[in-house]
Give the backbone structure.
Amino acid sequence: MSEELIFCPLGGSGEIGMNMNLYAYGKAGNHKWIIVDVGVTFADDSLPGIDLIYPDPGFIIDKKENLLGIVLTHAHEDHIGAITYVWPKLKCKIFATPFTALLVTEKFLEKKIDIIPYLEIVNLNGTINLDPFKIEFVTLTHSILEPNGLKIQTPGGNIFHTGDWKCDPDPVIGEKVNEEKLKKIGDEGILAMICDSTNVFNIGRAGSEADVRKNMLNIMSRLKKRILVTSFASNVARMETVFYCAEKINRKISLVGRSMHRIFNAAKKCGYLQNVIDPIDPRDANKLPREKIVYLCTGSQGEPMGALNRISNYSHPDVSIEKEDAVIFSSKIIPGNVRKHYNVHNKLLRDGIEVISEETEFVHVSGHPNREDLKDMYNWIRPKSLIPVHGEHRHMKEQINFAKEMNVPYPVEVENGDMVKIYPVNKPYVFDKAPSGRLCVDGNISIEEDSSFIKERKNLANNGFIDVTLVINNKGNLHDKPIVYLAGIPVIEKDDFLYGLDEEIKKITRTFSLKNIDQQKNLIDVLKKTCRKYSKEKTGKKPITNINLVRI
């Protein structure tokens, strides 16, 4: 039986976020595995009470004896955010460049886990040997420090996994794309390129951070009052841009929001941001004249706990905002956050605050490749096959079409769980399906997306709740009228509603012997149905109902 090379995404294919990719090499039944990235996505209103979602790792947990390690391309949450949930079930080595490694370490410290013995820091453009895999980190450009593509070398041939990337000729901070190195990788022969598909519909190039810096300086130079800039804390190049502009217009700068401070300190520890002015404490900044301060804030997506939302609500303890001040949204709106973002946006405008965003000014560039960037990568790598990831189905389908235009012989469209045989076949193809799914972080535990907890919570949110307590005396009779509690039910005439419900409950109760335990159980079931039916008739809602029998 010959050896084979397999690719299998468990997350990030057919969606933007939640990236988790598996590679396997060896004979059938005896593969060695690696994981590339372990990310999260953020829940929307369809999952009440849920903040984070990550790929179900069950498939690879069953194979952990043959798992060689987790390789991280960069430190965005959709690539590392699930590491503390997945790793304890695997206990394998983790490989990352210095900045990513530092942020991963901090995540584990929050969980009181010492990850240092398992964490191997890889130098930029370094190489690791995980026999039969030899993995070379290739520094690219993106909207975070130290984004890496991966050349994955196996006895059967080479893979190029792009990670998240773009072609930025002047990234401001960090290295620019090494075109010659990528051409050399292409010259060695690439069986398949697994490629970022986020911006495949966007013509031209993604743009450069240096161009954003020039325009941000022009904008901030004309603003006369207090300036607040909100962006993703992880975008250290944008952070440096704001520091640069603040210094040029003779203003102090203050960081607002926990993650801003965390990323700033991490970047400093890794040798970045060495030449920027020192930020001042927000409490000190509030004492300065309005025209002398720039705040760099979290909350660009309108997050309820983000600094900008609290500032806009005038509830932040250290930062105030007034009419004629300006807020610059220097980021893209993530799908699912549109409503939250515009709620903050509109509130600022109503209060007389000038709002500047990418809709009105050039204040942001994407960290993902547009079509001209993709064209360059195809020409450098020249893969035999293209497997699109990091995109919804529409993005991935378009990436397939684009690959055909670029004369890639065998593009393969996949979805989560698809197992693609890349070697020893001439034309890669999906040959099997691995179990895949989504797990939700609910408080301190992980549950399945279709969990009864979530179903109940949705039902509660949509229909409300009735709690009925019946007090039974020692003769088996009702001691008093039922005690009824309502929550979330649209009742206008509450007294009339409760009177009618009391009568229905009493009528049903009279037909049961409350001394008989079996009849008590039956009574509870019948009363639940009665209450739901009554509520449906009166309000149109069928609430979750709880019945309590109390003996005195």
